[in-house]
Amino acid sequence: MNRSAISILRTSIVTLLALVIVGYFLFQAQKLLTGPVIDIYTPENGATYSQTLIEIEGRARNIAYLNLNDRKIFTDKDGYFKEKLLLSPGYNIIKLDAQDKFKKYTEKRLELILKEY
Fold first, then answer.
1. The overall pTM is greater than 0.85
2. Residues whose CB falls within 8 Å of the CB of residue 13, separated by 6 or more in sequence, listed in order
């Protein structure tokens, strides 16, 4: 090969290596960039109930702590949580909040109604 072909090959390899390093860095930094995430599976926001005891299920990712109405709750190793909660008669606001180890904060609110018959 001549010198220009070797130079082009060397530049291509260095560029490819730099792209792989940047891609790996972005993949590893995605937790830092996205922050904590809370997904609530049940109950649905705005739901109406006739029983006082409900169960809240969901998943939290990238968290250092998780609170339900300012009470610490825990997740399993995959981030899933399941908690029972008593509703008050009428309109209820349930707050789930989480913070990651980089102090990023997120909050989800559920508005539920308990109808007494």
1. no
2. none
Looking at the DSSP assignment, which residues form a beta bridge with residue 36?
none
Ranges in the chain, pLDDT < 50 = none
Tally of domains in the chain: 2
> Is 98 exposed, middle or buried, given 0-12, 13-18 or 19+ CB atoms closer than 10 A?
buried
Per-residue model confidence (pLDDT) at position 28 = 81
Instruction: Tell me the CATH number at 71.
Output: 2.60.40.10
Residue 63: which domain range? 35-114
Written as six digits, the tokens of 10 are 């060397």
Q: What is the pLDDT of residue 1?
A: 62
Do 76 and 43 lie in one domain? The reply is yes
What are the pLDDT digits (tens) for 48-69?
999 999 999 999 999 999 999 9
Same domain, 22 and 56: no
DSSP states of 34-46:
H--EEEEEESPTT
| Helix (H/G/I), strand (E/B), else coil: 29 | helix
Q: How far is residue 116 CA from its own chain's centroid?
A: 34
Q: In what order do the strands lie in the sheet with 53-61?
A: 37-42, 53-61, 80-86
